[in-house]
Protein: MFS transporter
Organism: Mycolicibacterium madagascariense
Amino acid sequence: MRAWLVWAAGLLAYVVAVLDRTTLGVSGLDAAARFHASPSVLSTFVVLQVVVYAAAQVPAGVLLDRFGSRALIASGAALMAGGQLLLATTEILPLAIAARAIVGLGDALTFISVLRLVPHWFPAPRVPLLTQLTGICGQLGQVLSALPFLALLTSTSWTVAYTSVAAFGVLALAMALALVKDTPHGPAVVSEQLSPREVLSSVTTVWLRPGTRLGFFTHMGTQFSVTVFCLAWGVPYLTVAQGRSASTAGAVLSISVLTAIVSGILIGVLTGRYPQRRSWIVLTIMASNAVAWTVVLALPGRAPLGLLIALVVVISVGGPGSMVGFDFARTFNPSATLGTAQGMVNMGGFIASLLVMQAMGVVLGAAGGYSFDSFRLAWTVQYAIWAFAVAGILITRKKTRALLRVEQERALLETFDPHAH
């Protein structure tokens, strides 16, 4: 029972992190009006948060390996609550941008810290499924932003809505301090303090493992489309370009979460049963994303609601699909550097997301603002990321398999000759 309480407290912090991450996506038009921001400025507004998140992943992983989950989850919750409270009260654009950067930093500390709790508190056979469930259930934060937060924003005010979100961060902080424990036996084992040069050498070693890079490109190619849709441009696209109401847009985004729950369980089962086929599962998800967007963007006019729902369902599989990247990190890295490896993997999707968000903002601005034609053109920037990620997966998969063969041959040789090197 204690294990489930620890996991639930960590999961609450991640739900709040996803809520904080996605609030600006559903309130983008309100933000543009409040801060007098053009599409390109609003894009930068969102992108900065993701830049901070992505840039903080490796340092967060190093800190996680050293200080454990409890300290980082609590710190992340405190940062996010402070950032959202600042955003709730300011009308000055530079302060609002700084607030989103603070939220991004707190968000960066949370997810990999919650993931790190799972192998400490649960038996090994349960770890893959609970890892998927952590990612899936955390997306309930997106439901909170798409429905109650958006409803509160439209019925009250910006300040009330964002202050309420900050209150959830305070709750997550209190629950983390009260319930989260690194391991059943106390704090996580703290490794000996390393010099900056030794830390850099360790980080470099982790990155040079082809399995780590395979996880990075997996996360990159699967996650960015749904992230960009939910975090930045989905609601404006559905309401302005596709002519749907705000409530319909919120409901469509909620379908994304339901899809993630179902597909995440399926992906968890498939990757556990067929570990040698994980990369093919990932490539299939990426291909389906590209096909779905091609069908929608090829239409000369607005898409039927059913097709828009189908699009969101297909791209939402990319969220659970990106979790396969963490499975690669766990498979090909020792536990002592797992936090660092997970941080590197988590960078992939968010680097891709920020590039696409920024590029879309530039395209929208150059094409004359929010319109059907400008959004249609802007979404095409996704194809460059898919091509790059597919190439990265194919290259690193080949190197990973070659390394595995060498290790298997060495193990076989040592079985027959224990003194062989």
Summary: The CA atoms of residues 220 and 349 lie 4 Å apart.
